[in-house]
TrEMBL record:
Gene3D superfamilies: 3.30.70.270, EAL domain (3.20.20.450). It comes from the Bacteria. Residues 1-25 are annotated as: Disordered. Residues 108-241 form the GGDEF domain. Pfam families: EAL (PF00563), GGDEF (PF00990). GO terms for molecular function: cyclic-guanylate-specific phosphodiesterase activity. It comes from Marinobacter nanhaiticus D15-8W. This is GGDEF domain-containing protein. Residues 250-506 form the EAL domain.
């Protein structure tokens, strides 16, 4: 073999050896990258992998792996920290961020504003899937436009939205909350449909003497939000220390309500509705009482506000409806008060936002085999005016099936005679505040005469509530009032006491044996 051939062959072997070495290095690098990647994925860790190789192919592979990990990290972050329904941060992320800020040195200038949209569920029930997506996107865009660079929005599980803001003075928080609520003032255009969203807001501040964890700050803001919801659309409440004691009291009452629902402590009391011209009982208003085994009777003025804030008003009202409607078939009551007396049941403002409420009421009537015309639903004036569209939708559906509708507590809220012309009502109940002292108050007499005249023209029955004295009754009779109720005739009573003490007629005299 010539030297030239030997040199060529040696060169070929060297190149083959170098190629094998490069291949081995490449394989080792790829195997090392693969092992690191497997370990990270097994731990749910998206931290980047490393390699000492300077091979361009290895570096290209490394770049691809890092890109894949970045996408994985984003997906994992969204899965862990983003609320899929709203696109905002979720409660876990909110808690982590709040705890991080609260643990920093010095008092953090930080507050949490909660935004609630009371009619959101009802609006959603009227939309199709496409419109629902449009509304969610439009709402998200509007609220994001309100954010400053150092603020964030998170979505809590009950559809409440939380805004973390670097503010701690009440005027600034009130202004900021109003700015957020103002973002919902204009209607949302969903194709040919327009919808309006209502809002209430509340806030809690993170201070040295205030909440020191994310959960306590959120709980404080929720306590303030409960107060704000009770005040109606557009309200804002800032958490104060006095709310802590109130919150503990409400928590105790909440447990009492839950026990009452579970253990049968919820009792039905009836107060007669009287035909004032004939002195006869025509029906009864259903009133709830909690009969606690140790504390005795608990007034609705104590437990109803707590039931409304906690959502327990719905199961409570449902239980009261189921307990009271069978009374329309009670042979003892029918024998005493006739076969066609009615029952009036109160609905709270929070119940109006349940889109299935009308169907639930009609279903109970069907189960109990009770004619719908013998049931009367009472809605408060303030509840109707807080969201008239929602109220009118409920009223129309119930009246279509024969259920009568009464506007309760008229005169205690807006007291506008004009708007009742546009409400499909059967009865107007005048609040006790206009009846009390009627006999020596000329202004009240003038107002009542005007109400009675208008309602006669509108074919509305009028009930005067809270009649307590004979002079008040005399004035009402002189004005031609047809119906009334109050302590003068009977306090609310359980059925047994009602049958024992309240006759069907002859009620134009005071109830002599009524206990306080």
């Amino acid at each position: 073999m010539s030297r030239e051939n030997e040199s060529t062959e040696r060169g070929t072997r060297e190149r083959e050896s170098e190629t094998r070495e490069i291949d081995n290095d490449f394989r080792q690098s790829v195997n090392a990258l693969t092992l690191q990647l497997r370990e990270r994925l097994a731990r749910g860790d998206s931290v980047g992998v490393t390699s000492d190789s300077r091979d361009p192919d290895v570096q290209h592979l490394l770049d691809s792996v890092h890109h894949m990990l970045a996408l994985l990290d984003q997906a994992l972050h969204e899965q862990k920290y983003v609320d899929i329904d709203t696109g905002f941060a979720n409660a876990d992320y909110l808690e982590e961020q709040l705890d991080r800020h609260l643990k920093t040195a010095g008092p953090p200038i930080l507050s949490l504003i909660l935004l609630s949209i009371p009619n959101r569920t009802l609006v959603a029930e009227t939309l199709d899937a496409r419109e629902t997506r449009q509304l969610k996107m439009a709402l998200r865009q509007r609220l994001q436009r309100t954010l400053a660079p150092n603020e964030m929005i998170a979505s809590l599980p009950d559809d409440t939205l939380a805004f973390v803001v670097p503010l701690d003075s009440e005027p600034k928080l009130r202004l900021r909350a109003q700015q957020i609520m103002n973002a919902l003032d204009d209607p949302f255009s969903l194709g040919e449909r327009q919808v309006w969203l209502s809002a209430v807001a509340a806030a809690a501040r993170a201070r040295e003497d205030g909440p020191d964890t994310s959960l306590s700050l959120i709980q404080a803001a929720r306590a303030a939000l409960g107060e704000s919801r009770s005040k109606g659309t557009g309200s804002f409440v800032l958490f104060e220390d006095t709310m802590r004691a109130q919150r503990h009291g409400r928590l105790d009452m909440e447990q009492t309500i839950r026990s009452a629902l579970r253990r049968g402590w919820l009792e039905t009391y009836l107060q007669p509705l009287v035909d004032l011209q004939r002195g006869e009982v025509t029906g009864f208003e259903v009133l709830a009482r909690i009969n606690h085994p140790e504390r005795g009777l608990i007034s609705p003025s104590v437990f109803v506000p707590v039931a409304e804030r906690t959502g327990l008003i719905r199961p409570m009202s449902d239980q009261m409806m189921r307990q009271s409607l069978p009374l329309l078939r009670d042979e003892r009551l029918q024998e005493r008060y006739g076969n066609d007396f009615s029952l009036s049941v109160n609905l709270s403002p929070t119940q109006l936002h349940d889109p299935s409420l009308a169907d639930q009421i009609l279903q109970i009537l069907h189960w109990e085999k009770v004619p719908p015309h013998r049931l009367k639903i009472e809605l408060t004036e303030t509840a109707v005016m807080a969201d008239p569209n929602v109220a009118i939708h409920l009223i129309h559906k119930l009246r279509k099936h024969g259920v009568a509708i009464a506007l309760d507590d008229f005169g205690s809220g807006y007291s506008s005679l004009a708007y009742i012309r546009n409400l499909p009502l059967d009865q107007l109940k005048i609040d006790r505040s206009l009846v009390s002292g009627l006999d020596h108050d000329g202004e009240k007499r003038a107002i009542l005469e005007m109400i009675l005249t208008l309602c006669e023209r509108l074919s509305l029955d009028v009930v005067a509530e809270g009649i307590e004295t004979e002079p008040e009754l005399g004035c009402l009779l002189g004005m031609g009032a047809h119906f009334g109720q109050g302590f003068l005739f009977s306090r609310p009573k359980p059925v047994e006491e009602l049958l024992a003490h309240v006759p069907a007629s002859g009620l134009l005299q005071p109830a002599a044996t009524d206990e306080v």
